[in-house]
Amino acid sequence: MQVASGEWVFLVGASGTGKTTLLKLLYREELADNGRVIVGGNDVSSVPGSRLRRSMGIIFQTFRLLEKKSAFENIAYGAEVLATPPAEVRRRTQEILELVGLKEKGHRLPGELSGGEQQRVAVGRALINRPKLIIADEPTGDLDPENTDRVIEILDTVHREQQATVMFATHNVEVVNRLARRVVRLEEGRIVRDATGGYWAAQEVGEP
What we know:
Layout: E1 8-12, H1 19-26, E2 38-39, E3 42-43, H2 49-52, E4 56-60, H3 71-80, H4 86-99, H5 115-127, E5 133-137, H6 145-162, E6 165-169, H7 173-179, E7 182-187, E8 190-196, H8 202-205
């Protein structure tokens, strides 16, 4: 499987078919038993995971926010760990809060935000360093339709404006069909379909 720079690819298939494992191979949370995984021209087995992930934005279905830090601080944290100058961190964080529609809620703790708002904070944290590769593992799985639309709009904006590559695992057939991007379907760890556009049925996407 090859993915071009700037491409958007949906990974679909029933639970347990290997979508999350494939994404983990990309950011080196798991290593391949055989074969090679190349990201940005580098074999991931030869690059420390922490360094590899600096060029990525990773979004999970579970928000994984720091509960004692505000929305602003959670987003800023991703830039602070890379020793970004404080003034630049503040500027970027304000931009991200506006992008994700939380400009007026940056002071709130995760527990003071709705689930959809927390996921938008998590998306903002993943985008703070302007990643070349965005890895999204079921980022809308627990969201209502309105917040699902917001997350998709945010990612689509970054994809178009920054030419970011997006790898997006999902069960949401409506999102897959609406965006009409490349779709890779997995069964038992193998690619069984790789197509762009067209209509996808719920059973093909693996919608529960």
